[in-house]
Design brief:
transmembrane, membrane, flat
Length: 194
């Protein structure tokens, strides 16, 4: 009995100390780092394939942008992007492309992290809907939960993408973030006015 109590005390001391040491900064920073290291450049490079020529190319999406985001729309006009109405179709493509550039950077910096994470989950859900319904992916690419295959390109990967985002929504980005600095600054400004 004494051995079990000693082991329990050692276990509690070790992990309670570790929790205190890492509390408030480590998990938020880690969730942002993992999400960013895996997906920031993936989405940045994806966005680069969608922009048109020139410095304002984001406002003139490429045919590929429509093919990736709105396949039935570009197919309906014979892949002639000039035939697509600005509202809502081109606006959707521009906003989707901008989201691929902006949201991962916000998450990386920890700036507007919770809202950026919510928006990114929405982006992933729309991306998944388009991939499944318009890009003719097969069942093995879609995957299933609790099957023996661990690396389906849609379900398995995207479920793992969602976890750090869900963590950031619930717990926030942590003390090593711009959100934390802004909160501290607002608090100090409020205290000075009182």
């Amino acid at each position: 009995m004494r051995l079990i109590q000693s082991l329990n005390h050692l276990h509690s001391s070790l992990f309670d100390g570790l929790s205190r040491l890492l509390d408030g900064w480590f998990l938020g920073l880690t969730a942002r780092f993992i999400f960013s290291s895996v997906l920031m450049f993936y989405f940045f490079n994806s966005a680069l394939t969608k922009i048109g020529d020139g410095i304002f190319g984001i406002f003139n999406p490429s045919v590929g942008a429509y093919a990736q985001i709105l396949p039935p729309i570009i197919e309906a006009v014979g892949y002639d992007a000039s035939q697509i109405a600005f509202f809502p179709w081109t606006l959707i493509v521009i906003l989707g492309t901008a989201a691929e550039f902006i949201l991962p950077v916000l998450i990386f910096l920890g700036l507007g992290t919770r809202l950026a994470s919510v928006a990114f989950i929405g982006f992933i859900l729309v991306m998944t809907f388009v991939d499944i319904n318009f890009h003719a992916v097969d069942a093995s690419t879609i995957g299933r939960m609790f099957d023996r295959i661990h690396n389906s390109e849609i379900l398995d990967q995207r479920l793992l993408w969602l976890f750090p985002l869900l963590f950031l929504i619930v717990k926030g980005p942590g003390k090593l973030s711009f959100d934390h600095l802004l909160r501290r600054w607002v608090k100090s400004q409020t205290e000075q006015q009182v």
